[in-house]
Specification:
By secondary structure, the chain is mainly beta. It contains two helices and twelve strands. The model has no long low-confidence stretch (mean pLDDT 87).
């Protein structure tokens, strides 16, 4: 099986030229197989759909700050950031769960069809890890035409020799869906290869 290994000085960029299937609104799912070399730096990004600056982020997966947590990152328009950060933290996956030198599968699902305003769920190795109601101020993802970057944050300064918020370790089977995948769908398919024709698969 082929995978990518990143050393902090490289990433993958998939250009968004407009009308991209990656310009997601509504419910969505992001998932990946990960094997980090370490989790020691404050910011380490698996993927992000954004340009420089947190206020441009549409969605992604990253460690943000000093907490040893891997969380869904997003910046929906006009959201109450304090409430949103609490939900993000409550559904983050703790580093001790995946820092054993083995491959682990992670997934995050925003389902706007659940409860009063929807839910954010996280999964580890096909099993539900945590779930919280979304804040009442959650409306929709911030839409942008920025590229999808895998393995680091965005950087508009070509003179920088070190990529910002870089991931050090291996990644595989990164998947982005424009639908909320169900608990059974994630459990039954997280270790199954896809053919690319699956309903809702954007990447």
């Amino acid at each position: 099986n082929k995978f990518i290994n990143l050393n902090g000085n490289s990433n993958l960029i998939f250009e968004d030229n407009g009308l991209s299937p990656l310009d997601i609104s509504g419910s969505f799912t992001v998932e990946a197989w990960i094997k980090p070399d370490h989790f020691d730096t404050q910011f380490q990004t698996i993927m992000t759909k954004s340009s420089a600056g947190d206020d441009s982020i549409s969605y992604g997966i990253s460690k943000n700050g000093s907490d040893d947590l891997l969380r869904l990152v997003a910046n929906p328009d006009d959201i109450n950031m304090l409430n949103w950060h609490e939900v993000q933290k409550s559904t983050s996956i703790e580093a001790e769960e995946f820092l054993n030198g083995e491959w682990h599968h992670i997934a995050y699902v925003v389902n706007l069809g659940n409860n009063h305003n929807g839910t954010l769920s996280s999964y580890l190795n096909g099993k539900l890890y945590a779930e919280e109601n979304l804040p009442s101020s959650y409306t929709d993802l911030r839409q942008n035409n920025h590229d999808l970057i895998i393995g680091s944050g965005s950087d508009n300064d070509p003179s920088n020799t070190q990529l910002p918020r870089s991931w050090k370790g291996s990644l595989d089977e990164i998947r982005i869906w424009d639908i909320a995948r169900s608990e059974s769908e994630i459990e039954e398919n997280y270790s199954v290869s896809l053919d690319g024709s699956e309903h809702g698969l954007s990447f």
